[in-house]
Design a protein that fits this description.
Elements lengths: L2 H6 L2 H21 L3 H10 L3 H19 L2 H22 L4 H30 L3 H13 L5 H29 L1
Helix pairs in contact: 5-6, 5-7, 6-7, 6-8
Protein backbone atom coordinates (compact mmCIF):
# COMPACT_ATOMS: atom_id res chain seq x y z
CA UNK A 1 0.00 0.00 0.00
CA UNK A 2 1.41 3.42 -0.97
CA UNK A 3 1.79 6.37 1.37
CA UNK A 4 -1.04 8.24 -0.38
CA UNK A 5 -3.40 5.30 0.14
CA UNK A 6 -2.36 5.11 3.80
CA UNK A 7 -3.24 8.77 4.25
CA UNK A 8 -6.61 8.32 2.51
CA UNK A 9 -7.39 5.35 4.74
CA UNK A 10 -6.38 7.07 7.98
CA UNK A 11 -9.27 7.06 10.48
CA UNK A 12 -8.80 10.71 11.43
CA UNK A 13 -9.09 11.78 7.78
CA UNK A 14 -12.17 9.62 7.22
CA UNK A 15 -13.78 11.06 10.36
CA UNK A 16 -12.98 14.63 9.24
CA UNK A 17 -14.48 13.95 5.78
CA UNK A 18 -17.63 12.50 7.31
CA UNK A 19 -17.99 15.46 9.63
CA UNK A 20 -17.43 17.94 6.79
CA UNK A 21 -20.04 16.13 4.67
CA UNK A 22 -22.48 16.28 7.59
CA UNK A 23 -22.01 20.04 8.01
CA UNK A 24 -22.26 20.68 4.26
CA UNK A 25 -25.51 18.67 4.27
CA UNK A 26 -26.84 20.74 7.19
CA UNK A 27 -25.86 23.94 5.38
CA UNK A 28 -27.60 22.68 2.24
CA UNK A 29 -30.81 22.04 4.21
CA UNK A 30 -30.65 25.53 5.73
CA UNK A 31 -29.98 27.21 2.37
CA UNK A 32 -32.90 25.32 0.80
CA UNK A 33 -35.20 27.64 2.76
CA UNK A 34 -34.16 30.54 0.51
CA UNK A 35 -35.39 30.60 -3.07
CA UNK A 36 -32.41 32.63 -4.30
CA UNK A 37 -30.00 29.80 -3.44
CA UNK A 38 -32.29 27.23 -5.07
CA UNK A 39 -32.40 29.35 -8.23
CA UNK A 40 -28.60 29.70 -8.26
CA UNK A 41 -28.23 25.95 -7.89
CA UNK A 42 -30.65 25.26 -10.75
CA UNK A 43 -29.05 27.76 -13.12
CA UNK A 44 -25.40 26.96 -12.41
CA UNK A 45 -25.63 23.25 -11.53
CA UNK A 46 -23.36 24.04 -8.57
CA UNK A 47 -24.65 22.83 -5.20
CA UNK A 48 -25.94 25.81 -3.21
CA UNK A 49 -23.78 24.96 -0.21
CA UNK A 50 -20.64 25.03 -2.39
CA UNK A 51 -21.69 28.35 -3.96
CA UNK A 52 -22.30 29.83 -0.51
CA UNK A 53 -18.97 28.55 0.85
CA UNK A 54 -17.21 29.85 -2.29
CA UNK A 55 -18.74 33.28 -1.68
CA UNK A 56 -17.56 33.25 1.92
CA UNK A 57 -14.05 32.28 0.80
CA UNK A 58 -14.11 35.05 -1.84
CA UNK A 59 -15.07 37.62 0.81
CA UNK A 60 -12.28 36.34 3.06
CA UNK A 61 -9.73 36.60 0.24
CA UNK A 62 -10.89 40.11 -0.67
CA UNK A 63 -10.74 41.19 2.95
CA UNK A 64 -7.28 39.65 3.43
CA UNK A 65 -5.99 41.17 0.22
CA UNK A 66 -7.35 44.57 1.18
CA UNK A 67 -4.93 44.78 4.10
CA UNK A 68 -1.98 45.36 1.76
CA UNK A 69 -3.96 46.28 -1.31
CA UNK A 70 -3.16 49.99 -1.60
CA UNK A 71 0.58 49.56 -2.13
CA UNK A 72 0.03 46.36 -4.13
CA UNK A 73 -2.41 48.04 -6.53
CA UNK A 74 -0.04 50.97 -7.03
CA UNK A 75 2.90 48.61 -7.51
CA UNK A 76 0.92 46.65 -10.11
CA UNK A 77 0.04 49.91 -11.81
CA UNK A 78 3.63 51.05 -11.98
CA UNK A 79 6.20 48.21 -12.20
CA UNK A 80 5.21 46.27 -15.32
CA UNK A 81 4.04 49.36 -17.27
CA UNK A 82 7.25 51.23 -16.37
CA UNK A 83 9.39 48.33 -17.60
CA UNK A 84 7.36 47.92 -20.78
CA UNK A 85 7.36 51.69 -21.39
CA UNK A 86 11.15 51.81 -21.25
CA UNK A 87 11.28 48.78 -23.53
CA UNK A 88 8.85 50.51 -25.93
CA UNK A 89 10.96 53.66 -25.98
CA UNK A 90 14.02 51.62 -26.94
CA UNK A 91 12.25 49.74 -29.74
CA UNK A 92 12.15 51.15 -33.28
CA UNK A 93 8.38 50.60 -33.64
CA UNK A 94 5.99 53.36 -32.56
CA UNK A 95 2.77 51.41 -31.97
CA UNK A 96 3.96 50.21 -28.56
CA UNK A 97 4.84 53.81 -27.62
CA UNK A 98 1.24 54.82 -28.28
CA UNK A 99 -0.07 51.95 -26.16
CA UNK A 100 2.01 52.89 -23.12
CA UNK A 101 1.53 56.64 -23.50
CA UNK A 102 -2.20 55.97 -23.54
CA UNK A 103 -1.86 53.77 -20.45
CA UNK A 104 0.02 56.47 -18.51
CA UNK A 105 -2.51 59.16 -19.43
CA UNK A 106 -5.42 56.96 -18.29
CA UNK A 107 -3.60 55.72 -15.18
CA UNK A 108 -2.63 59.27 -14.18
CA UNK A 109 -6.16 60.55 -14.78
CA UNK A 110 -7.57 57.69 -12.72
CA UNK A 111 -5.13 58.32 -9.85
CA UNK A 112 -6.00 62.01 -9.90
CA UNK A 113 -9.72 61.23 -9.61
CA UNK A 114 -8.96 58.69 -6.89
CA UNK A 115 -7.03 61.25 -4.87
CA UNK A 116 -10.02 63.60 -4.89
CA UNK A 117 -12.50 61.10 -3.50
CA UNK A 118 -10.56 58.26 -1.85
CA UNK A 119 -12.11 58.59 1.62
CA UNK A 120 -15.63 58.58 0.20
CA UNK A 121 -14.82 55.64 -2.09
CA UNK A 122 -13.37 53.60 0.79
CA UNK A 123 -16.37 54.36 2.98
CA UNK A 124 -18.87 53.02 0.45
CA UNK A 125 -16.68 50.41 -1.25
CA UNK A 126 -14.54 48.61 1.36
CA UNK A 127 -12.65 46.34 -1.06
CA UNK A 128 -11.85 49.13 -3.44
CA UNK A 129 -8.12 48.40 -3.73
CA UNK A 130 -8.69 44.73 -4.57
CA UNK A 131 -10.93 45.75 -7.45
CA UNK A 132 -8.55 48.57 -8.40
CA UNK A 133 -5.80 45.97 -8.82
CA UNK A 134 -7.97 44.00 -11.22
CA UNK A 135 -8.87 47.24 -13.02
CA UNK A 136 -5.21 48.24 -13.39
CA UNK A 137 -4.37 44.83 -14.83
CA UNK A 138 -7.30 45.21 -17.25
CA UNK A 139 -5.87 48.57 -18.35
CA UNK A 140 -2.49 46.98 -19.05
CA UNK A 141 -3.31 43.71 -20.80
CA UNK A 142 -2.98 43.97 -24.58
CA UNK A 143 -5.83 41.49 -25.08
CA UNK A 144 -8.31 43.86 -23.46
CA UNK A 145 -6.84 47.23 -24.48
CA UNK A 146 -8.55 48.76 -21.45
CA UNK A 147 -6.46 51.93 -21.43
CA UNK A 148 -7.28 52.59 -25.09
CA UNK A 149 -11.00 52.01 -24.47
CA UNK A 150 -11.09 54.41 -21.51
CA UNK A 151 -8.98 56.96 -23.32
CA UNK A 152 -11.28 56.94 -26.34
CA UNK A 153 -14.49 56.86 -24.31
CA UNK A 154 -13.72 59.16 -21.36
CA UNK A 155 -10.40 61.01 -21.37
CA UNK A 156 -10.30 62.14 -25.02
CA UNK A 157 -13.88 63.57 -25.06
CA UNK A 158 -13.26 65.29 -21.71
CA UNK A 159 -9.96 66.73 -22.94
CA UNK A 160 -11.58 67.87 -26.20
CA UNK A 161 -14.33 69.61 -24.23
CA UNK A 162 -11.83 71.39 -21.96
CA UNK A 163 -9.63 72.30 -24.91
CA UNK A 164 -12.54 73.77 -26.91
CA UNK A 165 -13.63 75.87 -23.90
CA UNK A 166 -10.06 77.05 -23.37
CA UNK A 167 -9.64 78.04 -27.01
CA UNK A 168 -13.06 79.79 -26.96
CA UNK A 169 -12.05 81.73 -23.84
CA UNK A 170 -8.65 82.57 -25.33
CA UNK A 171 -10.34 83.84 -28.50
CA UNK A 172 -12.86 85.90 -26.52
CA UNK A 173 -10.14 87.57 -24.41
CA UNK A 174 -8.00 88.40 -27.44
CA UNK A 175 -10.78 90.50 -29.01
Amino acid sequence: MSAAQNVKQHPALIQAQNQANYYVGQLDKELSKYSAFNTIEQRTQIPKSYAFLGGVVLLFVLHSFNTFASPVSNLLGWTIPAYLSVKALESPAHNDDVQWLTYWVVFGFFNFLESLALRVILYYFPWYFAFKSVFVIWLQLPGFRGAEKLYGGVVKPLFANVQSKASTNAYATSE
